[in-house]
C-alpha cells in the first residue's frame, strides 16, 4: 500500500496543476457582485467640487466607478478610454486611491478629467470596502447602487467593447449582464 502513495500523490498534484492551468488569473471573483455598493462618503480631490458617496451611485443612472491613482502607470494607459466613455454619455466616477492631493489635481488637469465626481480615498479604507486588490479597477453600478461588474487591471479597447459597454447597455435596459461579458 505504501509503495503506491507516491504515485497517488503524483496523480493528485497533476490534476491540481491541470485545473490551475485552465483558470484565468485576471478573473478574480468578487463577493460584491450583485450587492449594494458599500456605504461611504469621500471628499472631493483637490481642485474639484464634487466628492463621491454611496448615495451618488443610487440616483437612477448606470455608472462606472474607476479606482485610480496618479502614481499608477496602468491608470495612465486606460485614461483615454475613460475619457472616451465619458464623452459617449457613460457617467464615470473616480475613486482616487492613496494619492497626494497636488499630484492627482495636476494629473487630472494634464490628462483631462473624465469623472463626473471624484472622491479622495487618502487612507484606502473605502477601496478596501469595495474589495479593491490594486489600481486600476473599474466597477459597473446600476441605478439602484448595485455592483454588476468588476474589471481588474487597466481597461483595453477589447475590455470596453466586450465587457464594460455590454454590461452598461444591459443594465440600462434592465437586463442581466450578459454571460459573455464575463464581469
Could you characterize what this model shows?
- The chain has 183 residues and is of the alpha/beta class.
- It contains five helices and seven strands, in the order αβββαβαβαββα.
- It has helices at 5-21, 73-87, 101-111, 125-129, 157-172; strands at 41-42, 52-53, 63-68, 92-97, 118-121, 137-141, 147-152.
- Strands 5-4-3-6-7 form a five-stranded mixed β-sheet. Strands 1-2 form a two-stranded antiparallel ribbon.
- Strand 6 and strand 7 form a beta hairpin.
- It is globular and about 75 Å long.
- The model has no long low-confidence stretch (mean pLDDT 89).
Short note summarizing the structure:
The chain is an alpha/beta fold. It has helices spanning 5-21, 73-87, 101-111, 125-129, 157-172, and strands at 41-42, 52-53, 63-68, 92-97, 118-121, 137-141, 147-152.
Arrangement of strands in the largest sheet: 5-4-3-6-7
Shape call: globular
- Oligomeric category: single chain
Low-confidence stretches: none
List descriptors:
17% strand, 7 strands, 183 residues, 35% helix, alpha/beta, single chain
Amino acid at each position: 500500500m505504501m509503495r503506491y502513495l507516491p504515485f497517488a500523490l503524483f496523480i493528485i498534484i497533476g490534476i491540481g496543476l491541470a485545473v490551475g492551468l485552465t483558470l484565468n488569473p485576471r478573473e478574480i471573483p468578487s463577493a460584491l457582485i450583485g450587492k449594494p455598493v458599500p456605504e461611504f462618503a469621500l471628499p472631493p480631490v483637490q481642485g474639484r467640487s464634487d466628492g463621491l458617496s454611496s448615495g451618488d451611485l443610487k440616483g437612477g443612472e448606470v455608472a462606472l466607478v474607476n479606482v485610480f491613482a496618479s502614481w499608477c502607470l496602468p491608470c495612465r494607459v486606460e485614461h483615454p478610454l475613460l475619457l472616451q466613455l465619458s464623452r459617449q454619455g457613460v457617467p464615470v466616477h473616480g475613486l482616487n486611491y492613496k494619492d497626494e492631493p497636488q499630484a492627482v489635481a495636476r494629473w487630472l488637469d494634464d490628462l483631462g478629467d473624465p469623472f463626473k465626481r471624484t472622491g479622495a480615498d487618502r487612507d484606502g479604507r473605502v477601496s478596501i470596502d469595495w474589495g479593491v486588490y490594486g489600481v486600476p479597477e473599474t466597477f459597473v453600478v446600476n441605478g439602484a447602487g448595485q455592483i454588476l461588474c468588476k474589471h481588474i487591471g487597466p481597461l483595453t479597447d477589447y475590455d470596453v467593447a466586450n465587457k464594460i459597454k455590454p454590461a452598461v447597455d444591459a443594465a440600462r435596459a434592465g437586463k442581466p449582464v450578459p454571460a459573455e461579458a464575463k464581469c
